[in-house]
Amino acid sequence: MLHAKGTLCTIDVGDRAARTETVDDELSEFVGGRGVATKLAHDRIPFDADPYGEENRLYFSTGPLQQSQMSFTGRMNCTALSPLTDGVASANAGGYLSRNFVGTGHSVVELTGESDELLAVHVTDEGVEFEEVPELEEATVPEVSAVMNERHGLESENLATIGPAGENGVRFACVMTYDSRAFGRGGLGAVMGSKNVKCITFQGDSAPEVEIPAEDVQSSVHREAATSDHIMRRQGTTNSIEFVNDNFSLPTRYFSEQSFEHAEDIGGDAVEEKKYEKASCSVCAFACKLPTRDEETGIETEGPELETVFSFGSNCGVGELVDVMQSNELCDQYGMDTISCGNVVAAYLASEEEFGNAELVHDIVEKIAFREDEGDLLAEGVARSHEELGVENFSVKGMEFAAHDGRAINGQGLSYAVANRGGDHMYSTTLADEYGGDVDPRGTAGKAELVVENENRNAFRDSGVICQFGVGRAVESDRFEALFDAEYDDILEVGARIVELERHFRNQRGHGGEEDRLPYDLPDLESSIEEYYELRGWNDDGTVPSGTVAEYAQAD
Ligand code: SF4
Fold it and tell me: Which of 47, 57, 72 is nearest to 8 (CA)?
């Protein structure tokens, strides 16, 4: 099977030392990206580690396709023990970082320890350098980019950076690259912040040789991306806002409603009107990104994407696109996941009865990033603040929900319940089957098998690494087989092992099936969860049977 090549570079930011080793066995078993990072995280982060402690490890990793010229591969992976979900969590970002990363000659970079001074860590094909940057304390993401450019001639596409939110341990702080692209979910920016690392830069010309098969498939995918007339190329993910709204799966006013009367005002056409140029990720001809500008106020941002339109729009009761753009931009600058942040702000608005107050929203976002006043509580996320706020806990395993309401598309609801990453739509993307009409969205019965297969495919997707917007559109099972020179069943098996390692790590930290739950009822949910465990070969209590992972990971 095709897999990434390149070394593992371990950087102890406490000792300011780096070492390099081969991880060929891990790469051949787990392909790259999320797979290899999950395997290393599982085996190397102590099961009782503090997510904010020096023993936590933060991984950046690419897959084999980051050395291709094929569209939908301009992305890479980041993994750590999450302060939000308390499990090993991975996130995936676009932009241009992946190709600069590959040039260092490494397939994985691992950060461990904790620095006594705020650092910029420079990783090149010639080694690792440490730069003390106390003057960048609480700098925004673009401010860091400007300084790195002035001092070192580095571009934002060479950088993985945190904003003030990461430094302040906001549980949903993200790692940013290219100023506007986020390793978004799970608080990985807070892990980087706890290591006192403000940014990591990657550059070099030493990409290892990877021979990627099926040149014909690569060029077909690329050509199809370049010539597609899909509406996403104009409107990104926002093209489906009104469709989602019409399907009653657009959570509104902190989940109290499932459709929003102003959906059109913040939907795809409205966003397209403010789009001022095309934008993409490295080598991707699909180019679905959305730089937008409001001429009247001068507010510029990239996006908002559908999830932000939901979290800071409908769920906050905010119906003006420019206000959502401003929330999006603040989150990018401070380095916060727009989904989790918008949800916790919506929870606050519910408690204050202030839905629709955009000025308050922007004020609270800033307070969260700096943990000021009520922002300190909200920086803990919905699961840890809802009681004090007096609102329901709309999250799973600490992870705030994405849009795509599980009460309307029940298979996606099942997926939210069982996913190791909790209330996140990208883990299984079962929503695509239900919205697409292949599967009746009503009920969960008979959908466990679909969720298992989707989770396995997506775990492999994130290891390859392929953008979700290519999967199911340009890259179906036969193209997976051709590109990775493997049977589809074997591809799914790699994905299954990744999901199992994540689950095993959670189990070792005391989290079992009691957390595979939703804040609402769905038809046949209990029996579908049982079926899910059975299909995975797990125990009735949602734990991985003793000894199962010993074959491919550190034994329990
Ligand atoms: S489809 Fe969009 S998000 Fe995915 S790699 Fe291409 S430009 Fe980036």
Answer: 57
Q: Parallel, antiparallel, or unpaired: how do β-strands 106-112 and 7-12 relate?
A: parallel
CA pair distance 236, 227, nearest whole angstrom: 16
Put simply, whether the predicted model's pTM sits higher than 0.90 gets the answer yes
Q: Which residues of 25-42 are buried (b: 16+ CB within 10 A; e: fewer)?
A: ebbebbbbbbbbbbbbbb
- The rounded distance, in Å, linking the Cα atoms of 442 and 206 is 51
Q: Which helix or strand (DSSP H or E) is residue 93 part of?
A: strand 88-93
Residues 274 and 292: beta-carbon distance below 8 Å: yes
Residue with tokens 């899909």: 230
Ligand 1: residues within 6 Å at CB? 72, 74-75, 94, 280-281, 284, 286-289, 467, 469
How far apart, in Å, are the Cα atoms of 282 and each of 231, 232, 375? 20, 17, 36
Give the Cα separation of 330 and 366 in Å (integer): 7
Q: pLDDT digits over 271-330, tens only? A: 999 999 999 999 999 999 999 999 999 999 999 999 999 999 999 999 999 999 999 999
Pocket test for ligand 1, best of 77, 222, 288 (most atoms within 8 A of CB): 288
Contact 329, 301 (CB under 8 A): yes
Residue 545: asked if its preceding bond is cis (omega within 30°), the reply is no
pLDDT digit string, tens, across residues 507-553:
999 999 999 999 999 999 999 999 999 999 999 999 999 989 988 88
End-to-end CA distance of the chain: 28
Q: What average pLDDT does the chain have?
A: 97
